[in-house]
Amino acid sequence: MTAKLDMDKLTQEVKALARLHGAVLVGVASIDRFDPMPPFHDKAPGGRHPRDYVPNARSVISIAQPVLNAVMEAPAALADTDYAMIAPDIKYAYLEKLYDTGGHAVQDRMLEYISQHVGQRLQMDGFDAMIFPTPGMHPAMDPPAPPLTEHQMWEGPSDTWRRAHNPFGYALGAFSHRHAATRAGLGEFGYSSVVLTPEFGPRQRFNSIITEAELVPDPLITEPICLRDNCLLCLKACPMFALTMRDDPDVKDYRSVESVDRNEIFIDTPAKVHAPSCRHRKDRTGGSPHRCFYGDCIRICPVPSKPARLSQRLQQVMSP
Predict the structure, then answer these.
(1) Other CB atoms closer than 10 Å to residue 191's CB: what's the count?
(2) Nearest alpha carbon to residue 214 among 26, 1, 3, 55
(3) Between β-strands 243-245 and 204-211, what pairing exists: parallel, antiparallel or unpaired?
(4) Spatial distance between the Cα atoms of 265 and 185, rounded to a whole number of angstroms
(5) Crossing angle between the packed helical segments 69-78 and 88-100, to the nearest 10 degrees
(6) Beta-ladder partners of 206
(7) What three-state secondary structure class fits 55?
(8) Which residue has the higher pLDDT, 125 or 145?
């Protein structure tokens, strides 16, 4: 009984510490939730399982901060208008930088700051803890090694390597914060392959702390959040066709299931993102009205409520 009380107390104290420093959502996953067994089918790639980082890991803490609605909506809407003092040929890049800073970089740094506070608290209590960068990592090759092109950095050094290890060009994240979030009961994956929470839909950023401490796990989501086939707006919003459902027989990767049961909660992602197509959307669409403004698949999502302000392109997508 004392051990159980101590576990409850530590869990509540760790969550309170995370919230004190700015985490809005906090959840805990037990380590068994990262094993490939129903309903957790996705298998972590080599080097990305929690116990690859902390051999005696028993819990993973997932934390999140929201992207503010106006930060999500205003830059994309302003791309449709004349923007004073900004030349037309750099307007998109300027506004995407505005969104990237207010909707990614701010949360990324704050989540890393929160993770450090939680990790050092756990270590002071005698439990090893591992923290991570929030976004993917894109290391530069210093001389004398030959520099890699952007294509090689994202998709692999050779066609042979890509076919064997990274056919879909995934970002080089050290750990899947999205999978940790679903396993910690914060949300479920949507058709966009982004995690949706009841509070913010797809509009938040996540980070994770792996620890030896045995914490009280949170219950998993039990009711669907993604509107599934009744919506499909995230898929329709992508002019690059970068989103593909996992029940497409041509879509395969390291994961152990190849079809989607739409009656189940999406603890694992039901969709795949072809990352190179998403990243190179500007190369094909330029400044045309059909251009995807960074994050449109998230921006158009009607969960938890319909967006108040959309670009002209997304308004057309939403029209019946």
Answers:
(1) 25
(2) 3
(3) unpaired
(4) 11
(5) 170
(6) 64
(7) coil
(8) 125
